[in-house]
Amino acid sequence: MYLLTIRDGLVTLHIGPYTSPKQAVDDLDRLLASFGERARWQIHELEEPGSLLDKPKAPKGREPQSLLGAAASPVAA
């Protein structure tokens, strides 16, 4: 599923869901006519809530780190 987001100044609209990005783009052409020329838009792919719980993912390109860092060691008091 896909969601179309249009932002024009302080106004943000979330429109959808759509079954394909092509359907969102077809609707986008019609909707942009009622917004200013500086309006921004995005098409977001929605995920099933269950799929997020089944397989947790680590952020891409980042490895878990401790708060102390790799070279730091605890100091005895």
Characterization of the model:
With 77 residues, this protein is an alpha+beta fold. The protein has 2 helices and 3 strands; from the N terminus they run ββαβα. A 3-stranded antiparallel β-sheet has the order 2-1-3, covered by helices on one side. The longest helix has 12 residues, at 21-32. The chain is elongated. The relative contact order is 0.20.
Give me the secondary-structure category: alpha+beta
In DSSP terms (H or I, runs of 4 or more residues), the helix count works out at: 2
Give a short account of the largest sheet: 3 strands, antiparallel
Low-confidence stretches: none
Overall shape: it is: elongated
In what order do the strands lie side by side in the largest sheet?
A: 2-1-3
How many β strands by DSSP? 3
The N- and C-terminal alpha carbons lie at a distance of: 56 Å
Helix content: 10-25%
Instruction: Give the SSE order as H and E letters.
Output: EEHEH
